[in-house]
## 1
Amino acid sequence: MAKSVPVHCPTCRREHSFTPPTFPCACGTPLTLPVQADASPEPVAHRTWRDAWVAVRCPSCDRQDQWPRPEFGCSCGTVMRLPVRPPEPGDGEPGTGERPARALRPAFRPVAIRTAGDAVVAAERYLAWLGYPGVTRPGDPQEEGVDLRAAGLVARVDPSTVPTSLRDVECLWLHGMADGACGAFFSLAGYAREARSRADDLRVPLFVMDLTGTPQPLNAPADELVERGPV
């Protein structure tokens, strides 16, 4: 699992934490896209097929493939396209300071998001990848505010095209309090400013997902959840 890099929104100037996505190379090596932490992100005004992909060479087998270009959604509403540098020798080797729990994880295999159901599947796979066994969906379709459950965890997935609201974050937190569980939120369109601030106060992990189905931690509680996995 790659380490987070700082990302500065060019619109509101806020600093965020972004974990570069990792994809499985054809040789079997987990390939982390080398996002440039010192380069300025580019706001996405419109999308083209060419801009959505980036060529990256695997440092293990020297194979060059096209991978989804990483993007990040700021809570102010700006979507940024993040610059990627060509890999240097040794990029594919695990760092000496990584924790064993992270080093033993295989590469996360995302599922492309085309429907709201795909978004739930992507979050479900991600939680299982983090180490939560037996991720299930609530049996009662009338239960609002929770889309996924695991031991010690409740999760909500927002596949809408508008930023997740403060009320949605607080609702998930209340479900977690009632169940004595941690709450994790996954959103496709990011979060309203008030929702992001409240989640930080309540220690609710926030994740954003792009259409490749790869969740990215958005706040410190999410970074900690990725780092430690289930407690």
## 2
Amino acid sequence: MPTSAPPRNRFERRRAETRQALVRAARQILAETGDTSASIQAIAERADVGFGSFYNHFESKTELFDAAVTDALEEFGQAIDERVEGIEDPAELVAVGFRLTARMADSHPELMRILRDRGLAHIHAESGLSPRALRDLEIGIATGRFTCTNPTTALSALGGTLLSLVALRLARPDLDGDEAASDLAEMVLRMLGVPADDAREVTRRALPDLT
């Protein structure tokens, strides 16, 4: 899971561990049932922390579940980041993001269920994959790789299509996820202004290992 600067002393370490245990419990609930009506007592028991500890970290369940979604999205962004290092072509970055996301339905199912159920409200969030994708879109527009002119609206289209891919992979595990992801990535690149032949070639390049 995403990490921040290491706690400086034992108290801070224990405090950070308790907070992360609560976030992890909330993530599990979101992935399993999506039911945010679970009681604070049930969440604390799942996290194996005292009931009173909850209010040392969060003012409400809403705040906790928001933190859980942010944590999941940031883990998702970091997972993609680690595997696209060294790729400079904005078109390939978009394509690889789609194709790795499809594979993560198998390798990171909890993460993908949260993305499917909660991702739409976070397409323009300041954490997770969104700021990374917006950066790549801006570079692609600035360099002429993409012919669209508004990176924000392009991000809406890209994000919505990516979430549809996640929903498809989770609903239809029998489908060829790699083929579906490549096809959708190709459509998105063409929408962004990449020529058809180029878009197809980019979406069929060797893929970084997900392990």
## 3
Amino acid sequence: MNDRTTSPLTARRAVAEQRARDIAAAWQRGDRDIRALATRHSVGRDTVQADLRAAGIDPTDRTAPVDEPRMITTAELDRAQQAFARDSAGFTMDVRMDNAGYRHLHFEQGTAWWDLHAFPGGLMVRGDHGAFVFANGSPDIFSSFRFSGVDPAYWAQTLDAGTARSWSEQRFRDWLTEEAESLGVLERARKVLSENNGYDLEHEASARWALANAYDELGIAFPDPGEVDLYDWDEYYLWTMHAISAGIRAYDQAATETTTP
């Protein structure tokens, strides 16, 4: 028997083990959305929960500490703020509920819109840039946000749904270039990095597929999550941070105008 032959059962087990490692790593990075993890890995939510429990993680504990991500730079925050400003210039606010800690604020500008749903202990933000749920136990989460300001690292630790960090094509390209250069296969790796190779490296699944197909030529395997972090701050998450801040400022300004004689 050829020792290099892999049985279908062995291959399926290897895929399942890699998926479980990826799910556990995503959870530890702060990605606590069971449904999103299931969709990303094309499995059911029961499978995600089973993978987490097998890794010693309680899938019901959304408050477990998050692995420290790369510190965000001032330039990145500024770019996110500029993107939000472009999308939301001249937005309007509609206060649809404001009752003892329960608030529903709707914001709109052209095709851009977002809602803030505040409740004691938490905040849900939803709109054309995705949906996020934050829970930090504060009786008035608006007060918490006024105190902390736009602090992506802190609020990532309070996420109950949504993801603060997502796949980074640039980090993948940088890592693959460094690996290929060290192995003397940089020219061959450029075929994988080429925009004309038929793979969309903007997505993790496609990047995995591209590297797997090029393994015989490059000898480079996709890294385990614990070895290399190929995720970075999600642009929609950073946009949402500024949307929350701008929404609360607009709410406060309206309240001041209402109470001023």
